[in-house]
Amino acid sequence: MGLYESWMKKAFTQKGQSVDEVWNDYLPLEQKIYEYILEEKIQDMEYKISEIAEKFNMTDEQAVAFVDGINDVLPEPYDVNQLEADTIVKLHIEFDELYKKMVEYKAEHLYSLPQWNNIFTADEQNHLFKAQRNARTVVNEGPKVGRNDPCPCGSGKKFKKCCGANL
User: Fold this and answer.
1) Long-range contact list for 144-150, CB < 8 A, 24+ apart?
2) Coil vs helix vs strand at 50
3) PANTHER family in the record, alphabetically (predicted)?
4) What's the rounded Cα separation, in Å, for the pair 104 and 25?
5) Which string of b and e fits 136-149 if b means at least 16 CB within 10 Å?
């Protein structure tokens, strides 16, 4: 069984619910890694999984969980199922993408770290925050179709008798 599979079995129950005590142990360790990265302004890291675990006092499974968490912002994501203790991971971190991803995942404990002030001004953080929040907002720019208007699909029927019938 791989490290990632082992982590998933520890972190989630058979029904897909998270195991609180596992996450309560992991989240402060993850936060320490991000504090280190932001404090030192590290954009490129190259470590074995076991070295990440040793450096930050965590298990190999937790180190793989960290790579899984940051995987979405990497230019070349890893297949976390293939990661083993001796696998070397090269992490190239774009801070703006990382900040936006933390906002998307609603990880307030990470995007509100004071170390972000070393990288972005308060205005830049606010701009990135709003840009990410608005990225998921659907804005219908076309005119609103009324029930008795012709259907926009072009059938010639009224909207309420065509595409709007099952709404």
Assistant:
1) none
2) helix
3) ADENYLATE CYCLASE-ASSOCIATED CAP C-TERMINAL DOMAIN-CONTAINING PROTEIN, UPF0225 PROTEIN SCO1677
4) 23
5) eeeeeeeeeeeeee
Q: How far apart are CA 60 and CA 142, in angstroms?
A: 51
- CA–CA dist 73, 92 (Å, integer): 9
Answer yes or no: are the C-beta atoms of 28 and 36 closer than 8 Å.
no
Q: pTM of the predicted model, to two decimals? A: 0.79
CA 78/CA 59 separation, integer angstroms = 19
Task: Supply the pLDDT for residue 123.
Answer: 95
* Phi, psi torsion values for 89, nearest 5 degrees: -110, 135
Judge whether residue 18 has pLDDT over 80: no
The 3-state secondary structure of 100-164 reads HHHHHCCCHHHHCCHHHHHCCCHHHHHHHHHHHHHHCCCCCCCCCCCCCCECCCCCCCEHHHCCC
Measured distance CA(157)–CA(1) in Å, rounded:
59
Tokens of 158: 């009224």
The residue with tokens 């991000």 is 34
Q: Burial, 4: exposed, middle or buried (Cβ in 10 Å; 0-12, 13-18, 19+)?
A: buried
CA 40 – CA 62 distance, rounded (Å): 22
